[in-house]
C-alpha cells in the first residue's frame, strides 16, 4: 500500500488516495498479494476500472444464493 500511496502522489499530486479507494483495493485483493498488487496498480492507472471491479465483487457477495425448490413427496 505504501507504493500505491507514492504512485498516487506522483500521478495526482495528492498525499494519498481516499479511504474509499484504499477500501476498494483491499476488497478486490481478497487477501491475495498478487491481486493486491494488481488492483493497487489499477487504482493509480484508472480508478474507474477499480470501481467496476469492486462493484462486481460486492454484487456477487450480496447476491442471494440459489435455493432449490422443496421436493414434493
Q: Note the main sheet.
A: none
Return the string of H and E elements: HHHH
Helix content: 55-70%
Question: How many strands?
Answer: 0
Give me the Rg, rounded. 17 Å
Strand content: under 5%
What structural class is derived from the secondary structure elements? mainly alpha
Figure out the total of helices: 4
Low-confidence stretches: none
Could you report the average pLDDT, rounded to the nearest whole number? 88
- Alpha-carbon distance between the termini? 56 Å
Tertiary shape:
elongated
Any overview of this molecule?
The protein is mainly α. 70% of the residues lie in helices and 0% in strands. It is built from four helices and no strands. α1 packs parallel to α3, α2 runs antiparallel to α3 and α3 (33-45) packs across α4. The longest helix has 16 residues, at 47-62.
Write the layout of secondary structure elements.
Elements: H1 2-12, H2 19-29, H3 33-45, H4 47-62
Amino acid at each position: 500500500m505504501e507504493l500505491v500511496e507514492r504512485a498516487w502522489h506522483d500521478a495526482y499530486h495528492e498525499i494519498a488516495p481516499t479511504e474509499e479507494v484504499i477500501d476498494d483495493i483491499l476488497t478486490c485483493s481478497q487477501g491475495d498479494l498478487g491481486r493486491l498488487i494488481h488492483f493497487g496498480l489499477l487504482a493509480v492507472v484508472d480508478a474507474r476500472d477499480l470501481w467496476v471491479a469492486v462493484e462486481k465483487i460486492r454484487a456477487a457477495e450480496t447476491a442471494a444464493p440459489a435455493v432449490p425448490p422443496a421436493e414434493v413427496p
